[in-house]
Amino acid sequence: MLVDALGRPLRFVVTPGQTGDITQAPALLQGQSGDTVLADKAYDSNALRETIADMGAEAVIPSNRSRKIIIQHDETIYKHRNRIERCFNQMKHFRWFATRYDRRAIHFEGFVCLLAAIIWLR
After folding, report:
1. Which residues of the chain have pLDDT under 50?
2. Measuring CA to CA, how many Å separate 117 from each of 1, 6, 65?
3. How far apart are CA 102 and CA 111, in angstroms?
4. What is the percent of the chain with per-residue pLDDT over 90, rounded to a whole number?
5. d(CA 6, CA 119)
6. How many domains does one find in the chain?
7. How does pLDDT run across 22-36, given as a tens digit for each residue?
8. Rounded to the nearest 10 degrees, how much is the dihedral formed by the CA atoms of 53, 57, 60, 61?
9. Alpha carbons 64 and 62: distance in angstroms, whole number
10. Can you tell me the distance from the alpha carbon of 88 to that of 106, in angstroms, rounded to the nearest whole number?
11. At residue 111, what are phi and psi to the nearest 5 degrees?
């Protein structure tokens, strides 16, 4: 999921449970603009950092433990990454989202769109 600086959802992609989220990050960032992109250690890859640099933005991503050369990040800016967690927590207040009752992805995506609209109106 991609959120703005206020923690409001902008884009999302539903992936299978065994797929890593980093595979969808370039698609979520396509056509977006901004000064910084915040992500957690799971998104630490040279390819994603290059995509963010091509956008003209700064990547604020902590280095993964397996990286041999540590890339520094701004810890003050990184503290704002909790906004994505807040967005997910707002969505998890709805039982249908938290337990994912829908068996078909298209129904789940429709419900996520409805929740995103509710969050934007708050």
Report:
1. none
2. 14, 14, 37
3. 9
4. 55
5. 11
6. 1
7. 889 999 999 999 899
8. -40
9. 6
10. 19
11. -70, -40
> What span, in angstroms and rounded, lies between the C-alpha atoms of 84 and 90?
10
For position 16, which CATH number holds? 3.30.420
* Phi and psi, residue 20, nearest 5°: -70, 145
> 25: domain range?
2-121
User: What's the burial of 69, exposed, middle or buried (CB within 10 Å: 0-12/13-18/19+)?
Assistant: exposed
CA separation, residue 22 to residues 6, 14, 46, 64, 100 (Å)? 22, 12, 12, 13, 21
pLDDT of residue 16: 79
- Specify the pTM: 0.81
